[in-house]
């Protein structure tokens, strides 16, 4: 906060303390106190830095549960770009000993395309929209998200639903060697590795100890059948939330 004269509020507080001191010293300094108050009285206005005007009238988050159990949540805001995503309540902790690394493999295979959108077509479609696509598998959640222009929200949701419901699991045999080699050669931030190892120590007797950065013990033996079983158990309607933020109408998103 600043006073109308541009003087910081802290200076005014100091002046008020000086006035109080003058008054406490008795009648001899009352004239000085009056003079200080007169000078301050000429600076009654103040300015205040506020958030942008639209922040005063934000739309609420609206949530709808579809008949199949999928939840749809949206928050309409001003702008030209919208963020849409599908979040699945499943991650590395949901893998069994036999399917260790399944979440990571599904994350990588999602970027190789689907039956409807092979890799080349998927990349070209996203690029032509001027959009960005991100898939990330964590310890407890997996996210599929896109940033798109407001006129491409419907197409973005279609792409995400295709990736979530029909990932390229059939590409495992073809892509597995390259995925494992990339995992082995990938340089992970030291802090991220340390956090992952500390988590494993803290939860060593629980599935929460499953690594998110690798290496994944036994991942070489994970088959397409393992991935299908993992998805059947975890990629269920009640575990999914479709989310959108930006210039998006909730009614249109639900449709």
Question: How many separate helices?
Answer: 9
Instruction: Kindly report the average pLDDT value.
Output: 81
Given as residue ranges, the uncertain stretches (5+ residues, pLDDT < 50) are 1-7, 45-51
Supply Rg. 29 Å
What structural category characterises the helix and strand content? alpha+beta
Q: Main sheet, how many strands, which sense, barrel?
A: 6 strands, mixed
The N- and C-terminal alpha carbons lie at a distance of: 47 Å
Percentage of residues in DSSP E strands: 15-25%
Strand arrangement across the biggest beta sheet: 3-4-8-5-7-6
User: Helicity level, as a percent range?
Assistant: 40-55%
Task: Please provide the count of β strands.
Answer: 8
Which descriptor suits the 3D outline?
Answer: globular
Order of helices and strands: EHHEEEEHHEEHHHHEH
How would the blueprint of this fold be written?
Layout: E1 2-3, H1 9-24, H2 30-41, E2 46-47, E3 62-65, E4 71-76, E5 81-88, H3 102-110, H4 119-129, E6 132-137, E7 142-149, H5 153-165, H6 172-185, H7 190-202, H8 224-234, E8 240-246, H9 250-254
Parallel strand pairs: 4-8
Antiparallel strand pairs: 1-2, 3-4, 5-7, 5-8, 6-7
Architecture overview:
- By secondary structure, this protein is of the alpha+beta class.
- It contains nine helices and eight strands.
- It has helices spanning 9-24, 30-41, 102-110, 119-129, 153-165, 172-185, 190-202, 224-234, 250-254, and strands spanning 2-3, 46-47, 62-65, 71-76, 81-88, 132-137, 142-149, 240-246.
- Strands 3-4-8-5-7-6 form a six-stranded mixed β-sheet.
- The two termini are 47 Å apart.
- Mean pLDDT is 81; it is low at 1-7 and 45-51.
């Amino acid at each position: 906060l600043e006073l109308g004269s541009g003087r910081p509020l802290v200076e005014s507080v100091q002046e008020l303390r000086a006035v109080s001191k003058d008054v406490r010293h008795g009648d001899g300094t009352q004239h000085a106190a009056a003079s200080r108050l007169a000078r301050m009285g000429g600076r009654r206005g103040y300015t205040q830095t506020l958030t942008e005007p639209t922040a005063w009238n934000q739309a609420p988050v609206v949530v709808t549960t579809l008949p199949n159990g999928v939840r749809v949540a949206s928050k309409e805001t001003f702008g030209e770009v919208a963020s849409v995503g599908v979040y699945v309540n499943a991650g590395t902790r949901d893998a069994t000993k036999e399917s260790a690394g399944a979440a990571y493999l599904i994350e990588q295979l999602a970027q190789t395309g689907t039956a409807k959108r092979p890799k080349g077509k998927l990349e070209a479609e996203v690029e032509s929209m001027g959009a960005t696509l991100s898939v990330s598998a964590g310890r407890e959640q997996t996210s599929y998200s896109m940033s798109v222009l407001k006129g491409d929200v419907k197409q973005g949701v279609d792409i995400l639903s295709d990736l979530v419901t029909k990932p390229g699991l059939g590409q495992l045999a073809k892509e597995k060697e390259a995925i494992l080699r990339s995992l082995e050669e990938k340089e992970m931030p030291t802090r991220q590795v340390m956090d992952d190892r500390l988590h494993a120590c803290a939860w060593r007797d629980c599935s929460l100890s499953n690594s998110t950065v690798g290496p994944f013990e036994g991942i070489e033996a994970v088959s397409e059948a393992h991935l299908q079983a993992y998805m059947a158990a975890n990629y269920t309607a009640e575990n999914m939330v479709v989310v959108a933020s930006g210039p998006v109408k909730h009614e249109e998103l639900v449709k």
